[in-house]
Amino acid sequence: MNPAPITTSVFDLFKVGPGPSSSHTIGPMKAAYDFRQRLGELPDNALQRADTLHIQLYGSLSATGKGHGTDRAIVAGLLGQQPETADPDELLSLLKDPTVTYPVQVRDRTFAVGPDHIHFNRKRYDSPYANTMVLQLTSAEEIILEEEYYSIGGGFILRKGEHTDTEVARPVDLPYSYSTMKELKEQLKHHTLELSELMLANEMAVTGCGRKEINQRLDDILEFMHKAVRRGLRHRGILPGSIKLHRKAPVLYKQARGLAQSSDSFLIFLNAYCLAASEENAAGGIVVTAPTSGASGVIPGLTYLAKHHFHYDKTTLRNGMLAAAAVGFLVKHNASISGAEMGCMGEIGTASAMGAAFLTYAAGHKIEAVEAAAEIGIEHHLGMTCDPIGGYVQIPCIERNAMGAVKAYNAFLLATAGTHSLQKISLDSVIKVMKATGRDMSTKYKETSEAGLALSATEC
Question: In whole angstroms, how far apart are CA 415 and each of 208, 304, 381, 420, 421?
Fold first, then answer.
């Protein structure tokens, strides 16, 4: 049985929202907002009997949710906020005082929600996904309404009983359907198409938007990314949380500008740009999932470099973003972009592969080189653990964004050295390996902060 074709929108993969974690903040906020909408659909007699809201968190949402701000994100969603319009400063202020509760208005009823209503369950829960949340409206012991949600990475959510992502559960007649890189290449060859043309045609079918609107939205996404870079290059000081980690991006940027004629300045600039966006994410600022918030420094850093150092025009940048999206779709569709499912190879590994594809396609190379670059990017992140200290998206996450971008650039160099035709491993094959590796990896190393670097927290 062939897998279903990919019908994800580019703008579902690249989403604007508050950091620090798409699976722990954006996803839960959206789930809570959805639950709020369903509360409003309850019959009046059921709503009148209800008295309490409860939020049950399991898996990584429970293990690292405090550090990731999952509790704040859920409260924000219940209050009617959505990721793309949420005020990050207002979001950070939620739940600072444990005695304060917040009113959730549902028609003529008001339900208080606060720390006592959010339960971080450490017990094992029978669920198909690592990041599970159960939202309940109760009357004493009676459950009036209960919905189970899964945060599956990159801000994508599923509700129990639904068989596909809630954002892309739409019937689509794709002009060029594919579910693997092999099928994608066959479509390109059969129709004599460029990758960007195919992606644009499919995007028009998925979203119903015209070419001009899609191009404008791509420009807007790039501008959101680059705003995060610019903010991060300006902001100094200590990041939120108990680690008390100092920002490095402004220092690196100043160093790079002072070494403009040095051969090292190129790498220092790239590192500064990636750290800048990633530090903004860690501070809870507005970033773009690429494909996740935890990996939201790689693509912004590379595209900022491409715009300001390579002087690529808007068309070239857009086309490179479409190539990056194609790779992100393939990983999400055939493995996972969630750190709780794949470890950090699902986040930084995918971002690095997407970055390698961006660089390769923007430089004018064909699909074979794009595939080789993406394959190299993933191959050299296989087995990478997700072990954040204290549950914060800071150590090792911030520096991993810079390292992932450097690997992306090197993958681009290796793939375009005239040897991509000799590549022995296909992108489809390495994605299968990635999925198997994630399945075999101990849960201690998948966003639970129970092993690896997370155990060095006492040294910080």
Answer: 35, 22, 16, 5, 9
How far apart (Å, rounded) are the C-alpha atoms in residues 393 and 68? Answer: 7
**Residue range 266-291: average pLDDT?**
96
- DSSP character at residue 181: H
Give CA–CA dist 208/213, Å, rounded.
Answer: 10
Cis-peptide, bond into residue 115, ω within 30° of zero: no
Report the candidate in 197, 181, 192 with the shortest Cα–Cα distance to residue 368: 181
Class of domain 22-159: alpha beta
The enclosing H or E element of 143 equals: strand 142-151
Contact by Cβ (8 Å): 388, 239: no
Other Cβ atoms closer than 10 A to 183: 18
Give the three-state DSSP class for 58: strand
3-state secondary structure 298-358: HHHHHHHHHHHCCCCCHHHHHHHHHHHHHHHHHHHHHCCCCHHHHHHHHCHHHHHHHHHHH
Rounded CA separation 374/357 (Å): 6
DSSP H/E element including 142: strand 142-151
Tokens matching residue 81: 């906020």
To which H or E segment does residue 53 belong? strand 52-59
Positive or negative, the CA dihedral 312, 314, 316, 318 is positive
- The 10s digit of each residue's pLDDT in 116-160 is 999 999 888 888 888 999 999 999 889 999 999 999 988 899 999
How far, in Å, CA of 344 to CA of 451, rounded?
Answer: 13
Tokens at residue 451, please? 């092993």
Q: How confident is the model at residue 168, as a pLDDT?
A: 44
Output phi, psi for 186, to 5 deg.
-65, -40
Cβ contact 280:326 at 8 Å: no
Q: pTM, whole model, 2 decimals?
A: 0.89
Q: Which of 63, 24, 19, 398 is nearest to 243 (CA)?
A: 398
The H or E element that residue 282 is part of is helix 265-282
CA-CA distances (angstroms) from residue 409 to 33, 303, 311?
A: 39, 12, 16
Domain locations in the chain?
22-159, 181-459
3-state DSSP assignment of residue 182: helix
The model's pLDDT over 311-321, given as tens digits with 9 standing for 90+, comes to 999 999 999 99
